[in-house]
């Protein structure tokens, strides 16, 4: 295949991948919104709602290592299409139950668990496939468009679901999600996942690795990649310490500052708008030259914004100013999240060998999914017993400390040797003066 044809095909992948992600994300979020409201209306129980969340988080945590092994061993296109078809069938099953005997909580929990498993296989495999779908020069564009589609769905789906909920029966939401999933299958089936892939061919007769051996090989590979290890540890600490913001901003705005529900919704929407606009900007600009350095500065900015959530608890503000302040703060959070996530993901896509991508991304997903609920539970307890402002300020300082240690100058120079050369040239020029 000529280079020109491959580039045209990569352009097709870029937009097909984005549209597929947008449609499936939109369907998933509309479904999640409807199911959450349905459970709360049906039972009025926070425990039932939390059980549904556990059915989403636990299978993802448990299945991520299997997903990484499968993504590195078998056809990635087959895995993604199979996972999407399984999602369609799961929703179809729930739709059938709702039309014949009415939806039960057990059916919702089972469907949520199946969707969590299929999204884990699909997500890990898609993350492993980016460098096979598009040319290296447009990896940042692909990652930005992917994030943009998720952000767009995050903004639009609650609004549409909110309008529809209460006016149409539950099975309409299921039909919407099922249709979105079927369209995603059709789009994904037209993509060539091996276009730029650099995976090694499996030699016939060679001894097959067990899943345990495969995961050990993935961990051994990571130990030889200090820069990737630094990025993974930074990501994990962010996931954990970010619990201070995730739990704190809702608790502070609703319980402490008595923010009106519609104003709280607009403030949360500002986060998604910030993510959308920064994703759009990164999709159009040249690739970030020093991603680890940019990510490091972005995390410091994120930590400062997180401490800023505490300001209205320390300094009294009029309601309108407080609303504007938090809207701008969360908009800034949206911007910095993408400034951190996109360069880091592009860097990992380029640095990790194609044959190890599935296992590396699954290790990251497993650890992140395990730490996130732990962070939520810990911070939920802390906010009940300690002043909220000090929790946010201390967590922000810890985040800054973590990134300064893990992304110290020696690690940044390992990731970007040209930075050291640039400094040496500048030093030489100064000494000559």
TrEMBL record:
Transport keyword on record: yes
Main location: membrane
Entry keywords, A to Z: Cell membrane, Membrane, Transmembrane, Transmembrane helix, Transport
Topology within the bilayer: Multi-pass membrane protein
Superkingdom per UniProt: Bacteria
One Pfam family linked to the record: MFS_3
InterPro entries the record matches: MFS_trans_sf (IPR036259), TM_effector (IPR010290)
Residues spanning the membrane: 12-32, 79-100, 106-127, 148-166, 172-191, 227-252, 264-282, 294-317, 323-348, 360-382, 388-407
Gene3D superfamilies named in the record: MFS general substrate transporter like domains
Compartment list: Cell membrane
Protein name, UniProt field: MFS transporter
Annotated source species: Sporosarcina highlanderae
Lineage, top ranks: Bacteria, Bacillati, Bacillota, Bacilli, Bacillales
């Amino acid at each position: 295949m000529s280079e020109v044809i491959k580039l045209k095909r990569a352009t097709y992948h870029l937009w097909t991948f984005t549209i597929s992600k947008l449609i499936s994300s939109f369907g998933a979020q509309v479904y999640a919104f409807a199911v959450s409201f349905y459970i709360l209306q049906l039972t009025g129980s926070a425990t039932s709602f939390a059980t549904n969340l556990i059915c989403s988080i636990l299978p993802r945590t448990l299945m991520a290592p299997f997903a990484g092994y499968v993504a590195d061993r078998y056809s990635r296109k087959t895995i993604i299409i199979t996972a999407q078809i399984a999602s369609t069938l799961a929703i179809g099953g729930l739709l059938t139950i709702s039309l014949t005997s009415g939806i039960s909580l057990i059916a919702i929990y089972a469907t949520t668990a199946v969707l969590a498993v299929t999204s884990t296989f699909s997500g890990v495999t898609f993350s492993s496939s980016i460098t096979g779908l598009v040319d290296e020069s447009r990896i940042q564009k692909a990652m930005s468009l992917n994030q943009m589609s998720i952000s767009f769905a995050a903004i639009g789906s609650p609004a549409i679901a909110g309008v529809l909920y209460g006016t149409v029966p539950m099975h309409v939401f299921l039909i919407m999600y099922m249709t979105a999933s079927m369209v995603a299958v059709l789009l994904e089936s037209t993509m060539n996942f091996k276009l730029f892939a650099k995976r090694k061919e499996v030699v016939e007769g060679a001894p097959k690795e067990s899943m345990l051996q495969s995961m050990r090989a993935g961990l051994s590979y990571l130990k030889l990649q200090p820069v990737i290890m630094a990025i993974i540890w930074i990501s994990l600490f962010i996931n954990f310490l970010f619990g201070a913001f995730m739990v704190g901003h809702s608790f502070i705005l609703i319980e402490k500052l008595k923010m009106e529900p519609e104003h709280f919704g607009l403030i949360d929407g500002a986060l998604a708008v910030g993510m959308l606009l920064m994703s759009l900007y990164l999709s159009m600009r040249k690739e970030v030259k020093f991603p680890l350095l940019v990510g490091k500065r972005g995390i410091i900015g994120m930590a400062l914004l997180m401490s800023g959530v505490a300001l209205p608890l320390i300094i009294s503000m009029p309601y309108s100013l407080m609303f504007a302040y938090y809207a701008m703060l969360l908009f800034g959070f949206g911007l910095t999240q993408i400034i951190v996530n996109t360069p880091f993901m592009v860097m990992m896509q380029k640095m990790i060998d194609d044959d190890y991508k599935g296992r590396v991304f699954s290790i990251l997903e497993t650890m992140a999914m395990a730490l996130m609920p732990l962070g939520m539970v810990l911070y939920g307890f802390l906010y009940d017993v300690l002043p909220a402002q000090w929790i946010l300020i201390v967590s922000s300082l810890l985040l800054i400390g973590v990134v300064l240690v893990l992304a110290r100058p020696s690690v940044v120079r390992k990731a970007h040797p040209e930075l050291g050369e640039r400094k040496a040239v500048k030093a030489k020029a100064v000494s000559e003066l």
